[in-house]
Amino acid sequence: MAKPVVEGWFTQGDQPALIASKCTTCESPFFPKTQGFCRNPACDGDEFVDTELSRFGKVWSYTDAQYQPPEPYIPASDPYVPFALAAVELPEGLVVLGQVADGFGVNDIKVGDEVELVVETLYTDEEGDHTTWRWKPVAKAGDQS
Ligand SMILES: [Zn+2]
Q1: How many C-beta atoms lie closer than 10 Å to residue 136's C-beta?
Q2: CA–centroid distance, residue 44 to ligand 1 (Å)
Q3: Cα(40) to centroid of ligand 1, in Å?
Q4: Gap between the Cα atoms of 14 and 82, Å rounded
Q5: What's the CA-to-centroid distance between 55 and ligand 1, angstroms?
Q6: How far is the C-alpha of 30 from the C-alpha of 48, rounded, in Å?
Q7: For residue range 122-139, what is the model confidence (pLDDT) as tens digits?
Q8: Angle at 87 between CA 84 and CA 88, to 5 degrees
Q9: pLDDT digits 0-9 by tens, 28-51
Q10: What are the C-alpha distances in Å from 5 to residues 74, 79, 133?
Q11: Residue 26: which region, alpha, beta or left (left: phi > 0; alpha: psi -120 to 50)?
């Protein structure tokens, strides 16, 4: 049974999605989820509901992570294996950082590329698979090389 590395941050299944908090007053989404007061300075709302974010976004920035990043982005590989990190802008206007999907590296993405949210196994232990979200490049028509 696969378990998310961080509970409540994303849904699993065929069409996984990140879970954000949406302010019930101004409808602004926040990810990671927030509580307390709305972070929109023009809003005094303090109630939030869970909402699923778009599964597709565009690469806003990316990097080849040559150092160990902070949680929850830690790949539990030892020795440490560099991987690509992408900051992806969603239609909701949020930019969400995530690892690039298995089998893809910095050479497979560039700014403006469309990517899809996928859930992959980060590591496996005696409790089973532990999963996290990643960004997978969307194949572009006529882009065979
Ligand atoms: Zn608000």
Answers
A1: 20
A2: 6
A3: 5
A4: 28
A5: 23
A6: 9
A7: 889 999 999 999 999 998
A8: 120
A9: 999 999 989 999 999 999 999 999
A10: 10, 20, 9
A11: alpha
**pLDDT tens digits for 38-95?**
999 999 999 999 999 999 999 999 998 766 656 665 555 556 667 889 999 999 999 9
Q: Which residue has the tokens 């849904």?
A: 11
How do the domains of the chain map onto residue ranges? 54-137
pLDDT at 65: 72
Cα of 10 from ligand 1 centre, angstroms: 22
Q: Which two tokens stand for residue 107?
A: 């050479």
pLDDT-derived band at 1 (thresholds 50, 70, 90) equals low
How much is the pLDDT for 73?
58
Using CA of residue 48, residue 6, residue 117, residue 106, what is the dihedral sign? positive
Q: Which fold has domain 54-137?
A: OB fold (Dihydrolipoamide Acetyltransferase, E2P) (2.40.50)
- Identify whether the C-beta of residue 42 lies closer than 8 Å to the C-beta of residue 104: no
46 CA to centre of ligand 1 in angstroms = 7
Give the Cα separation of 53 and 4 in Å (integer). 17
**Bridging pattern class, strands 29-30 and 19-23:** antiparallel
